[in-house]
Amino acid sequence: MDNAIKNIIGRDISLSTLFEENRQTIEDSSSKVLNNLREQALEAFLKLGIPSNKVENYKYTNLQPYFSGDFSFSLNAPDFTGRMEDIFSCDVETLDSFTIFIVNGWYYSNNGSALLPEGVRVGSLAALAKEDPSFVEKYYGKNAPWLSDGLVALNTMFARDGFYIHIPKGVVVEKPIQVVNILLSEEPLMTNQRNLIVLEENSEARVLVCDHTLSSDRFVVNNVTEGFVAPNARLDYYNLQNQHNATTQVAGLYVDQKENSYVKTNNLTLHTGVGRNNIVLKLLGKHAEGHAYGLYLLDKNQHVDNFSFIDHAVPECFSDELFKGVLDDHATAAFTGKIMVRPDAQKTNAYQTNNNLLLTRDAKINSRPQLEIYADDVKCSHGATVGQLDEEAMFYLRSRGINKDEATILLMYAFAYEVIEKIKMDPLREQIRSLVEKRFRGELDKCHSCVVCGQKGTGNTSCL
């Protein structure tokens, strides 16, 4: 990889030293609006470091070991001149979308054949920060907790590029906007991608973010996405995670919602090594609705930690949250969901559920649904369940001539479907249904979409 920073990282301080040693190069090729926050972010990172499980919000996931080791950091966009379509085929083949490709955290290209409505802007955050700095400055760093979370501080120190989506007032984007994040390297790599989504008044957009690894090296991914949804706007945000077991990914989504806005997020973890998803929805205007859904399917020694915080800051808002997990082998997971109802947020309706299915004695889940309520005129509930396959349902299926393996798959799929049905894009929902079924059958692996492996689903770990 050209122009890469290489360093043996053994402690948090090594990351800060690495930044300071290369700061001039980073800032010279970046924009003022991104550079303005780097010094404060460095100071915050020196105080906070990479979170360990001693940090309350990271109680069940110690990320420090995964951010140590021998990594490269790309100072410039990858030196790749081919067509991304030649090495990658989207799992959601029937989805008619405007597609953006991001390679190792850098904006690469889009399929210009799919035209967006007039006024809609989609592209490279780095380019936008130079071309329209006042627009980026209005939003950059305004809701992501870069002064209180060490990982967001780290991202703000190193962030160079990512994608942005800007939907102007009154525009409804009918076609989904698909962002394909690709990791591709011949050596271990750490990326710090920064993204921005802005929906103005009375606008609508559906965004599908797909995370894929196309080579077998170790990756550490630290992504931050800031979203701003204006009055009467609607954002549907889907994140499909399908990465190999040597990937550690932290994905932070932080969204501010104004009055009468609607936001739905759906995190679908089909395959990963270690994953941490931070989902924060701030309901800042009356009658705002926030929906957070998630499905995680884990086996072997995989681990996923889903953290959500839904902040009811004003009266008369609604939130609904449902996360489900299926864990096999020695897989582990954690769910921490916090609903905050502030003193003035009367007539709040907030609901939260976490259900988990453990297929072995060695699979483990830590679930912490939380309500913090400071108003009295509210309707709120939360709950969590952990269980095994229903023996009566299994007996019923077996008595109808269905073998044990097929009956197990049917029961697992029935358990997961409640989250899948929340997907309102028909082609995406049907493809996710198919991918989930393949995952349960053991047919889905990290090379499922890699064209150069020769055929889909070969599991060839030597690709690229």
From TrEMBL:
Biological process (GO), any one: iron-sulfur cluster assembly
Transmembrane segments annotated in the record for this chain: none
Family in the record: Belongs to the iron-sulfur cluster assembly SufBD family.
Name of the featured protein: Fe-S cluster assembly protein SufD
Originating organism: Thermophagus xiamenensis
Residue ranges annotated for the SUF system FeS cluster assembly SufBD N-terminal domain, each copy included: 14-179
InterPro entries linked to this entry: Fe-S_cluster_assembly_SufBD, SUF_FeS_clus_asmbl_SufBD_core, SUF_FeS_clus_asmbl_SufBD_sf, SUF_FeS_clus_asmbl_SufD, SufBD_N
Record-annotated SUF system FeS cluster assembly SufBD core domain positions: 188-415
